[in-house]
Design a protein that fits this description.
mainly alpha; flat
Amino acid sequence: MSVDLSAPAGRARMSPRRRARVSRGVQYVVLLAVLALLLATADWSAVGQTIFNPAAAGEIVDRLPRAFYNTVRYTLAAFAVGLSLGTLLALMRLSSVAPYRWIATTYVEFFRGIPALLVVIAVAYAVPIAFGVSFTSIVAIAAIALGSVSAAYISETVRAGIEAVPKGQVEAARSLGMSHTRTMVQVVLPQAFRTVLPPLTNEVLLLTKDTSLLFIIGQTPEFFELTKVGRDALSTASGGLTGLFVIGACYLVITIPLGLVARRLERRTGGRA
């Protein structure tokens, strides 16, 4: 058996560490190449005129505080209804009474299966016709419509949190003479909510974006939310899409901190949700 000592040294196999370093280098080069291509091919004069137009942004600045406040208000109202109804549905899903389980399951499957926009339209226009009621507040419509949809998702989250509580703690509470209701309220639910805090925070984030669906309802300027202001800005003579990008930045002011809070809570709970 002979060994070819004349083989070039470059043909030697690279170590895993060196291969990983080369792979990262290639990825950085590809990323920089893509960014350079985008920067080189973009029409910056058109971008400045139609997307980042300071004059057009200045035309809607005075309406942003009210729209921002309304968006937060609609989100909190919807979340309050969603959390309350979602917790009730979760308890119904876990009930030993079969009709409660059937009702909760039907509700969850129904509201998870239809677009939230249809629910908003139904609450704003169909419910008043069917029941002879009149909603004078956009907050009420947001709370009922978006809260009903959110409850379907929150119920599954809360149910998972309740099922994650060790059964030994329930048995210990019952052995101390606590009733089933008291065990659920004082032992199970506090631990369940502590576990599902990260996904509940994500639900608030999703609700914030879902408030944009309220633009379909006829509103007075006093009740405009962010998307309605941005949509109206599209009809202005100048500025193009600048208004929508300003509105997008406003949403990020709300959603980015919420996302950070959700990740922080997820680390604290060990991702058990």
